[in-house]
């Protein structure tokens, strides 16, 4: 084994140091059957290891573990793959350095695997290093056979093959040693495809692993050390932008080295460099070439430009495909989203219409969540169909390039060829994963490094092609979103989560694009509805605001499409506790819809309902009751008594009665809503669970604690299963259960739930949200009732806003 002590392998051993000469004796024969002379111990690894190498302990230990494993009589292999600049060579150099000093190997040979020619030269050099009799043999085949024989007959060696290319795999398969468990082979390459091929030998698959960016701590330490910032200044430097800077370059070690060298040579502090990276001068910075060493002499821009140029040379379609990918979120780009988007686009082209009518069932006008004075939510569902607004989007001009790219994506074979080529050039990563919820469904995703994305975007701007490929990428996401029936339904959440990061990435790419495409704004609203339903209010607000800005410019402030965007933003404001802002927006929508649709239209009544909820949240119960009654009468007439929208208004009117102290009347309405919802949408639906939650609240007010606890436990179990433990609705139910426990004298259980609810609200909604402040008051009152005044004071000091209006 490679990690055995040298004494067990050789006759005599003198202490080993880097590149020191150590003599040992052997009786093995060369390929010419002659006795080998005394050999030297030698480390052939190039002296390119950065003196600032840091971290990577986990990866180094993994390599050591893999190369310690016995694979019969074959040399152990470990193949490391990753994008350019990620630090593969540095990792291999560090492993070689450490293992040589620890006397794990007598010989370390370093050979470039970039071409077959370099492999030939490197293997020939091995014969020279060991002073082999065949080192000057005129026949190449003889030299290759001799070096392979030497590896198979000699002990304690490590062969490092750096940057192995796909074209070199066949050569390696033929000429690398196939036996001798005392030797190890470590390879680096850019893609998993090459790694898998290189790790497969004699019917056995050796270990491979992907080297990814270092964690934030190691990346920051790398930057500080290379920039020459001493330990005393490290804390200040870290707080002044070092962490932000390494994140800005995607924690890519090569980029970090360039940032550090620029800082060192130009005497510019890290904060100033961060501003450069965040400005229009970013390309100039990553194009700058430092002169630190041979290993670092190329700029980051050149490193990736070479790959992009090679891609364009091989296929224009492949290059255009990569340009489209660059607009999406870099972490996980589902291939399914791309193919679904193209399928929808082809249907549009086939029907000779750039904007087919939006399907009514896929566009909902949503009611906001309602909260009682104790912070208990009545989860709601949109229910009624939204009348579609059919509008012509931005002009779609089919060009030969677009048609060719559509044909490529539409072909499963050509699409895989494109992905494979991008993967081989280390421009994208490729993964296939299986979801735990659907074991038979395989999800294939792509990913791009941030700096690769930036280089592609920059090249498009220079070629004035940014708008064309942005619009294509936007159409793909919009087409994929057409497969979503209802973004607020948990049945569609997986689809929406797949699309959400890419929709947000598109809106960040360039704000002026969004205003040109009405459908893009509509999908932004749809994704906002999804984010809102998951309790991700800040993200929902961002998309809603951008969609509204774009729609107002495209359609005008009074158009139904614009009012729809205003309505969604009002819903988000209401859920954030920004009731006055929500009230203002609802008032605008109500006025516009009454004028354009009439006072009895369901969309108008939906706004009436939502405005009532805002009044209720502000304690204006009489106004809320009046509007709820109006909405209920209209809904019963248009939709019937058992329609989900009707039942939702029944539910919310019950909350108002409860807040007014009319608990028995509230109970009657809650039971009507519960029975209807269990029948129409099912006992486990989120809306049904919301009614359970609020009916339990009513029971508590009546002193019926056992019944209340039973309903709350059922509601909590359902919400945790569907929404998760940190969703605001789940946290509300936890707080409600705490109130029940307190009323029953179960103080230990109550305190635990109060604190869990508060911690969750503070994390998810922030310290100023009404639900957070309401929970603070509940916990403080609980502590005061137990005469725990000092603990109550600590809570009050942390959340002073909770008591300013008291």
From TrEMBL:
Organism superkingdom: Eukaryota
A Pfam family: TPR_12
NB-ARC domain boundaries: 60-208
Molecular function via GO: ADP binding
PANTHER family linked: AAA+ ATPASE DOMAIN-CONTAINING PROTEIN-RELATED, ATP/GTP-BINDING PROTEIN-RELATED
Protein name as annotated: NB-ARC domain-containing protein
Natural source organism: Piloderma croceum (strain F 1598)
